[in-house]
Amino acid sequence: QKEVEQNSGPLSVPEGAIASLNCTYSDRGSQSFFWYRQYSGKSPELIMFIYSNGDKEDGRFTAQLNKASQYVSLLIRDSQPSDSATYLCAVERAAGNKLTFGGGTRVLVKP
Amino acid sequence: DARVTQTPRDKVTEMGQEVTMRCQPILGHNTVFWYRQTMMQGLELLAYFRNRAPLDDSGMPKDRFSAEMPDATLATLKIQPSEPRDSAVYFCASGWGLAGFTGELFFGEGSRLTVL
């Protein structure tokens, strides 16, 4: 079992719809959770981070964390073609531990 | 505009040659990561440093890879000898974490390595 798992996609959504991405992790002791976006041929860039159970909103993005079920999700509201990218989930177990990335979910937003 | 700088951007070499990749982290950051990305394996952690001390290099093939941070402004990743399976994009990322956590990572543009 991989430490951080994501559906590779592609997740195809029409413009204006909500894109829902999921990520599960194996280490129950994980404490920090990140979502990165990577455009084709570019480097990853941070979208959001979340540390506590519940929802965290930032503009059109909402991160949701459920530590009991060991999953973290990302919602993209009002999806735009510019949101087409690969979204990487990253998990940090504890202070001083490595940051482990999932394989990423490719999202395609169709006009 | 602070950013992580990596060199070279592209490198084509022949099997058996030595390859050195360099990274200049953002000034003031205390954590530096080296990742390798391929289509099959995604982003794999090779090594990382905190305050220049190596913390974890378990993802790195020790017989051919080495990572160092000779000073706060330079991190290096060396492959000797290189093999075709080393072909990938190598990313360096730096960050400033609170209480020992990583926090936000800023990635360089990557070094694309092709080993023939």
Polypeptide structure, described:
The complex is a heterodimer of chains A (111) and B (116). Chain A contains no helices and eleven strands. Chain A has strands spanning 4-6, 11-14, 19-25, 32-38, 45-50, 54-58, 61-66, 71-76, 85-92, 99-101, 105-110. In chain A, the strands form two sheets. In chain A, strands 2, 4, 5, 9, 10 and 11 form a six-stranded mixed beta sheet that branches. Chain A has a five-stranded antiparallel beta sheet with strand order 1-3-8-7-6, with no helix packed on it. Chain A is globular. Chain B starts with a strand and ends with a strand. The model of chain B has no long low-confidence stretch (mean pLDDT 92). Chain B is globular, with a radius of gyration of 13 Å. In chain B, the strands form two sheets. In chain B, strands 2, 4, 5, 6, 9, 10 and 11 form a seven-stranded mixed beta sheet that branches. Chain B has a four-stranded antiparallel beta sheet with strand order 1-3-8-7, with no helix packed on it. In chain B, 0% of the residues lie in helices and 54% in strands. Chain B has strands at 5-7, 10-13, 19-24, 31-38, 42-50, 53-56, 65-71, 74-79, 88-95, 105-107, 111-115. Chain B has 116 residues and is mainly beta. Chains A and B meet through strand 5 and strand 10 of A and strand 5 of B.
